[in-house]
Amino acid sequence: MFTFPELSTGPRQLPLLEVDEELRFFSSNAATQYLFPVINLTENGQCQQLQEWEATRLLPTVHSLISNKTVAGDLKQLLKSQLQELNTLLAKNKYMLGEKLSAADITIWSTVYPLYYNSMFKEEFLNENKNLVRWFEELAAAKAFKEAVTEWGGSSIGPFAPVSVLGLPQVLNISTPVSSPDEGAQEGPTAEEIQQAGDNWLNGLQKLLPPLKEEKKLLPVKGRKNILITSALPYVNNVPHLGNIIGCVLSADIFARYCRICGYNTLYICGTDEYGTATETKALEEKLTPKQICDKYYQIHNDVYRWFNIGFDYFGRTSTPEQTKITQEMFLHLNDNGFISTQNVEQLLCKNCDRFLADRFVEGICPHPGCGYDSARGDQCDKCGKLVTATDLAQPRCKLCGQTPVLATSEQMFLELGQLEPPLRTWFSTAEVGWAPAARSVARAWLRDGLRARCITRDLKWGVPVPLEKYKEKVFYVWFDAPLGYMSITQALTKQYESWWRPNKEYDVKLYQFMAKDNVPFHAIMFPATLMGVNKGHILVDHLYATVILVFTQSRISFLEYLNYEEGKFSKSRGVGVFGTDAQDTGIPADVWRFYLASIRPETSDSSFSWVELGTRNNSELLNNLGNFCHRSLSFCANTFKGVVPEPQLTASDHELIALINREIKSYVNHMEKGRLREALRHVLSISRLGNQHMQAQQPWVLLKGNEEERLRGSTAIGLCCQIATLLCTLLAPYMPDTCLKLATQLNIDREVMRINPENPTFHRYLPPGHVIGKPEPLFAKLEPTRLEELKKKYAGTQAERENRENGESKTENTGGATVAALEAAIAKQAEKVRQLKASTKDKTIWQPEVDQLLKLKAQLAAVAKTAPPAGATANTGDTVQSLERAIAEQGDKVRKLKASTKDKSAWTPEVNVLLDLKKRLAALQVNAK
After folding, report:
1. Which of 270, 323, 475, 511 is least surrounded by Cβ atoms within 10 Å, i.e. has the fewest?
2. Does the keyword Cell cycle apply (predicted)?
3. How far apart are CA 168 and CA 181, in angstroms?
């Protein structure tokens, strides 16, 4: 346990570990990690991840609480949620990570300390968390902890103070990850920076960047930087969830939008991955053909991505003639070059179906000890989450017919990766410099273990056929053909895909690929090896950005490979988590989702989804920071200067501010160019905070009432703040395109203005003298904690559990009318969806499933209406002649309209049955009355 000695610069304000004169730690987190070097026996590196959670989540929240006299309710709610998570963790263990003390315990204990020893905080935040209090008191009673606290002085503020020994707050903002205080305090701008700030301010945009040039065709251009961007092709057998969105398509979209404001010639493509076992399995579940499944889910994916404002240049699919042609050509080149071999493989054969079974077509009892789940798949067990080999399943059965399969031999084709390993290693040694750490580590692990031949064919029907007579009944394994989908999708758009993928030497084309960590082996090893084996001059990936797995969890402390949402592990197949369609239904704008997901983008470790944090980020960073600054700046301009932006008469202090902003812009560009999108976003928010601080320091509302000199300073402050708002509009555009379009309208600027120069990223005068802005309006709305709590409850559990819960709640309503009303609303919504689909396509396979769903809803309504009291009756008085006659008249009119609108008997038969039932009840009532 390290101690807290007196510091020469003041009282005990921060813990300090002094190793020697050259090495000091001012952070308990950093110090404990130093004292416990790399000794982490916990599974999946949980200790390091828990410490990062403490540094970037818990510590900033606690610091904000104890350093502010007035604390917003959402901040308190966030802290309560975090402490409840710790309490849940300690319900199972003596310490944070098991039965042994870890560095995480020491770090978190020092963070919780000021809450425990402040009676008000303890009452409000700790007392209800019994496990956490028990843990804290046990550690506090330990001899080492007692000695350390005694030497430190035992102050109730713990390791916090309003100002640290470094002269800066230890934590600047709850949404900004903690930077290490060991890096030292940031110094003010140098004389050179101030001079450059003044020079660049006067240059203007036109001198910094050439005018935007629109290309007629999306092809590489000589003399320009050509950027080819792909995001991993999502499987088309389910609705995309938020992990898919931030890990792949949203990250790539943010980067593509950044490239465009830099003036790069940019092509961003993606599409659905449609072949393989997963598609066939889903088709069996929904009793459709694989083609029908692909058509259905392609539209769902397309709709979700459009709602999220994902700006693909083209969103294609792999079940196309272009895909077949390119995949078969690539295979034949590999075969001709000697990189294809054949091997006999033992597989499960279903004699009843007369077919070899792919892993997902086999189910049985999980072989892992302590599990025993009886519906484990041949590739993975959904209960324990562990990988499974189909032949290891106990009591295996064919998913198609339920019969027991037998082991048999099938001849398959293999790509000889071992032969391609030497050139792959040579290429990787230089290429990895531009890759994300997660991508490098995965690729290195594969290369460290050595490469072996890998099967590229399957005994399936749905896929690209192998173009050899002997193997014509086989298709290519999806891992082999899916990456080639980037080329076929490019071909479907441009008809000249080789211009991008096999460019002439005089064209500068760089390939950027975005994906989740589990896709790295295919893009870092198999795909490049395939292209090397083809040997036709295809470009290889220059920059590979992989995120670690995004964790959806109510208890936000979660670890790699464990995807938790409330009490169950995240599962796309079981519908656990938050999906794209869910995000649309919340009513929260797409831009807020984009901002929040980008701000928690997992770049160095797992990240977690939290409804409470979503509200906190929206209310603090967007509403109170960014939105407040822009709206105040433009409102002052509109109300005081009739919308004409005052020309700033810059002073030395203004140049210092611009120099500080320039630092943030340079950091923004540096992080963006390296694919660190979350880090780049931090610098945008820092610029907004600088703007807010400048406005508060200048107080233009006071200066504008003073003498001539003061009024000039006041108008300069407003003019400079309007220019900063324009800069923010530009830098934030990749993250929040809709919001920035609104802000651009208020600023009265066009796309030509919203640009930055990556070669000279500086703040310049965006708005010319005399520029007139539009009408200022608020950009964001508050998310109420009560609404977020409702959403958290609504989306807990699996999709099936949600539906059961909603049905159960509707049945407990006081009247039957609530159930009828809910179904009628669902029918109206579904009918509108059907109308839009029919209007957008003539392909019946796309809209027929939605029509079937509509009919199901109508049948449910009929069943509910059958048991519900008629309109006008009450639970106490029962049926009346008048109420039944009125209900019969209304139902009869409904039946007539349905029969007139459609000849489909299934659509109106349920309504006829309701009408007949009402008539029977009326007849019975009349008989009883006599």
Report:
1. 511
2. no
3. 9
The pLDDT score that the predictor gives to residue 48 is 63
Residues 104, 30, single domain; the answer is yes
Using an 8 Å Cβ cutoff, are 321 and 330 in contact?
no
User: From CA 764, how far away is CA 724, in angstroms rounded?
Assistant: 9
Residue 573 lies in a domain: no
Q: Which of 800, 827, 845 is the last residue of a domain?
A: 800
Task: Tell me, yes or no, whether 622 lies in a domain.
Answer: yes
- Specify the residue for token string 């990895």: 432
pLDDT digits (tens, 9 = 90+) for 197-238: 888 887 655 555 666 666 677 899 998 999 999 999 998 888
What's the DSSP call for residue 387?
B
C-alpha to C-alpha distance for 632 and 695, rounded to whole angstroms: 9
Is 691 inside any structural domain? yes
685 in the same domain as 648: yes
Cα four-point dihedral sign 395, 400, 403, 408: negative
AA identity, residue 699 = Q
Distance CA 196, CA 189 (A): 11
Beta strands in 559-636 (DSSP E): 564-565, 568-569, 607-609
- Shared domain for 90 and 164, answered yes or no, is yes
What is the pTM (predicted TM-score) of this model?
A: 0.72
Nearest to 731 by CA among 672, 675, 785: 672
- CB distance 496 to 220 below 8 Å: no
Q: What is the dihedral of CA 86, 91, 96, 101, to 10 degrees?
A: 150
Angle between helices 59-66 and 103-116 (to 10 degrees): 20
488 and 445 share one domain? yes
Distances (CA, A) of 901 to 213, 251, 354, 392: 53, 46, 47, 56
Residues whose CB falls within 8 Å of the CB of residue 410, separated by 6 or more in sequence, listed in order: 344, 345, 346, 347, 349, 356, 459
The order of strands in the sheet holding 314-317 is 314-317, 265-272, 226-231, 509-516, 543-547
Residue 209 φ then ψ, to 5°: -140, 145
How many angstroms separate the CA atoms of 768 and 749, rounded?
Answer: 11
CATH number of the domain that 766 lies in? 1.10.730.10
Q: Does residue 423 fall inside a structural domain?
A: yes
Q: Give the closest residue to 201 by CA, choosing from 768, 763, 769, 771.
A: 763
Examine the domain organization and report whether 636 and 673 are in the same domain: yes
- pLDDT at position 32 is 63
Q: Are 26 and 133 in a shared domain?
A: yes
Residue whose pair of structure tokens reads 């750490």 in the numeric block: 437
pLDDT digits (tens, 9 = 90+) for 169-207: 333 333 333 333 333 335 678 888 888 888 888 765 555
Residues in Cβ contact with 792 at an 8 Å cutoff, skipping those fewer than 6 apart? 554, 611, 612
Q: Are residues 456 and 312 part of one domain?
A: yes
Return the CATH number at 541.
3.40.50.620
394 with 438, same domain?
Answer: no
Domain boundary pick from 511, 542, 559:
559
Q: Whose CA is closest to 177, among 683, 884, 910, 880?
A: 683
Structural domain boundaries enclosing 854: 813-868
Separation of alpha carbons 298 and 274, rounded Å = 9
177 Cβ neighbours under 8 A, 6+ residues apart: 55, 56, 682
Residues in the chain predicted with pLDDT less than 70, given as ranges, are 1-46, 48-49, 52, 56, 67-74, 151-187, 203-215, 385, 548-577, 603-608, 797-821, 837, 839-847, 863-879, 900-908, 925-930
Among residues 682, 520, 660, 665, the alpha carbon closest in space to that of 173 is found at: 682
Number of domains the chain contains: 6
Closest to 773 in 3D by CA, of 642, 650, 649, 648:
642
d(CA 797, CA 781): 28
Paired tokens of 142: 């330990």
Two tokens, residue 503: 């460019």
With residue 476 as reference, give the H or E element that holds it.
strand 475-476
Nearest-angstrom CA–CA distance, 781 and 631: 13
For residues 427 and 820, what is the distance between their CA atoms, to the nearest angstrom?
64
